[in-house]
Amino acid sequence: MKKITLLILLISSSIILSQTPCVDGMAGTYPCNGYDLLSHISFSDLDATNANDSWGWIDPQDNKEYAIIGLDNGTAFIDISDPINPIFLGKLPTYTGTTIFRDIKTYNNYAFIVSDSNGPHGMQVFDLTRLRNVANPPETFSEDAHYDGFENAHNLVINETEGYAYAVRTDTFGGGIHFVNIQDPLNPVAAGGFSGVYTHDAQVVSYIGPDPDYQGSEILISCNGFDGDVWIIDVTDKSNPQAITSFSHSNNSHAHQGWLTEDHRYFLLGDEFDEVDTGSNTRTIIFDFEDLDNPIQTSEYFGPTPATDHNGYVLGDKYYLANYSAGMRVLDMADLANGNLTEIGYFDVYPPTDSAGFDGAWSAYPYFESGNILISALSYNDDNYPGGFYLVRESSLGLNENLLSSSISIHPNPVKDILQISIIDNIQVSNIQVYDTLGRLVVNKTKDFESINVSNFSDGLLFVKIETEQGIITKKIVKE
Question: Which end of the chain has fewer surrounding CB within 10 Å, N or C?
């Protein structure tokens, strides 16, 4: 019978799901915890000199997944249905001007693209179903429609339920919010706007939260950058949008971006410049939105590094935070009601440093049905950094390595005879498995976890996999 190596059997979740596994805190040259690297395409291989924001599309016809990457000179489309072998299908060139700021959202099988470049870029519309039949990739695509109701926009949000796009910090409405009806995607129509704010980024939802006064309304949350405040706006009536309230956070520098929990009860806000200004570790500010007229800051979460935070998105009880030089950080929100976030994993796309600054992960998109996560990364100051497109996935070796490492000790390493396992902090272990260098399961213990006799095993590497109620930790041990 053909032997299966440890690299394929143990480290990969399956042969098709792991190109570079996360082992002992590294996936190749990238620091990691609980996430494997599936594939990477640098921005230079996308025929660009930088990358920025990103989004995704799932084709409803066959459930194929596509990554959409903003570049300084256009927008790249990548077929990731085979995550190990992504296909760069082509690029839609920028309408005008190169820029480090580009934003993309999708609605009804169309991509809508804005840019913060100088000049009349407007909003490009691209029919994503064209990606089904690309004969000779990479192609140079043309847009399918164009909206010129504004020249430039820093960001774009879309309410897919209602069919409205909201371009923010445009040259219209005093840098506020420009409404566009996109229910007919190839014929976008101006639908009003909201002034009085200088919006940097936003989220818009059909509200299902706990405040009965606004249930069923269309609510937009405007993060206003260096103005330091956040506005909650009822945009249900496009001809007469109403400000509900405005608020700020403690020690504010730049109210950059935030995201609601799926029940719309809590709002997680990132301040992009507080790490630079104060020297603090990465900070996420938590607000209780039980009463939209009176948001309450409940707590702050400080990450393990001083890296600058950027875009963050919620999926279920996890918060996926693009953390520039510290990469994508994954936070558990299970105890958010008590003001607590807990980091359970990460993938660091910028190995040189974890300091405050603007090189590294711009955005992390976690909404693919496959569970694959798209990270887009830029190089703001480092010409040697490849940046671009990264695709990662939760490793079968598990999350919580940082949490569990402090509670589980495996020694000695190297080991000759008896491997001792010390467990503290009331960690409940359910199973311990040991694999040898050929990928064979040589130990499978469901009790008596304190020691393992390895004296009869061949010299070389052993992988010890410990399953607990808090997650899985895997350690590499040298047998000599």
Answer: N
Pairing of strands 139-140, 87-93: parallel
Q: What is the pLDDT of residues 383-396, one digit of tens each?
A: 888 999 999 999 85
Closest C-alpha among 236, 231, 339, 252 to residue 295: 231
Assess contact for 223 and 201: CB atoms under 8 A. yes
The amino acid at residue 22 is: C
With CA atoms as reference, report the closest residue to 386 among 28, 22, 49, 29: 49
Q: Judge whether 221 and 202 are in contact, CB under 8 Å.
A: yes
pLDDT per residue over 272-289, tens digit each? 999 999 999 999 999 999
What size, in residues, is the chain?
480
Asked whether residue 6 carries a pLDDT value surpassing 80, the answer given is no
Give CA–CA dist 449/415, Å, rounded.
17
Inter-CA distances, 446 with 18, 400, 442, 450, Å: 27, 20, 14, 11
Nearest Cα residue to 295 out of 240, 222, 226, 206:
222
In the three-class reduction of DSSP (H, G, I as helix; E, B as strand; rest coil), residue 453 is classed as strand
Residue 135: partners with Cβ closer than 8 Å, 6 or more residues away? none
What domains can be seen in the chain, in order of their start residue?
A: 18-396 (2.130.10.10), 402-479 (2.60.40.3080)
